[in-house]
Amino acid sequence: SDTQWQFIKLTDKPFEGFDSSYDLYGDGSIVLVDLSGHSAGQVGIFLRISSGQRYFFIGDTTWTIKGVEDNAQRSDIIKWLVDVNWDTEKNTALIERLHQYSKTSSPVKIVPAHDEFVVNTLPIYPMFEY
Predict the structure, then answer these.
(1) Which DSSP symbol is given to 11?
(2) Are strands 54-59 and 30-34 parallel, antiparallel or unpaired?
(3) Residue 59 and residue 42 in contact, taking contact as beta carbons nearer than 8 Å
(4) Which segments within the chain are labelled E, that is strand?
(5) pTM (2 decimals)?
(6) What is the C-alpha separation between 36 and 105, in angstroms, rounded?
(7) DSSP H helical segments within 9-121, as ranges?
(8) What gap in Å lies between CA 104 and CA 75, rounded to an integer?
(9) What's the distance, CA 4 to chain centroid?
(10) Integer Cα distance of 54 and 47 in angstroms
(11) Does position 47 have pLDDT exceeding 90, yes or no?
C-alpha cells in the first residue's frame, strides 16, 4: 500500500532499430525499448557504463544467448509443458530481430535474464565506475 507506482511511456523515437524508446536520463546511458512478446509491456534495457561498454538486457525474450545466436524459441518440451509467452508470434519476431541485431550492431553485449554464463561475464558493482 506504500508503493507509489510511476508508469513510463515509450516515445515514438527509434533507438538501435527499435521503433519506440525511453531515454531515462536523456544522455543515452540507460534507454528502454519495447520487447513485448514474452510478456505484455516487457522492456529491454540498453546500458552504457563509464568505460563505454554497452549492454542490452533482454529479459526473458530468450532465456539464453543461444536463443539469440540460433534465432530459436525455447525448446519444444518447454513449449509443450507450459505456455510461456504472452504473444508467441510477437516474441518469435523479436528473437529474429535480436538475432539480426547481434550480427550487425556495434559491440553490445546482449544479456538474457537466465543465462548464467553471460551473467558471469558482467562487471560486479562497485568494480566499475559511473
Answers:
(1) B
(2) unpaired
(3) yes
(4) 21-23, 30-34, 43-48, 54-59, 108-112
(5) 0.84
(6) 21
(7) 65-70, 76-81, 88-104, 116-119
(8) 26
(9) 25
(10) 6
(11) yes
Q: Residues near 47 by Cβ (< 8 Å), separated by ≥ 6?
A: 29, 30, 54, 55, 56, 57
Determine how β-strand 43-48 pairs with β-strand 21-23.
Answer: unpaired
Instruction: Kindly state the greatest CA–CA separation across the chain.
Output: 45
Q: Is the pLDDT of residue 125 over 80?
A: no
- Integer distance in angstroms from the first to the last C-alpha of the chain? 33
- Can you read off the three cell numbers belonging to residue 25? 536520463
Rounded Cα distance between 35 and 17, Å, is 12
Q: Which three cell numbers stand for residue 123?
A: 562487471
Distance of CA 41 to the CA centre of its chain: 12
- Residue-wise pLDDT for 74-99, tens only, equals 666 666 676 777 788 998 899 999 99
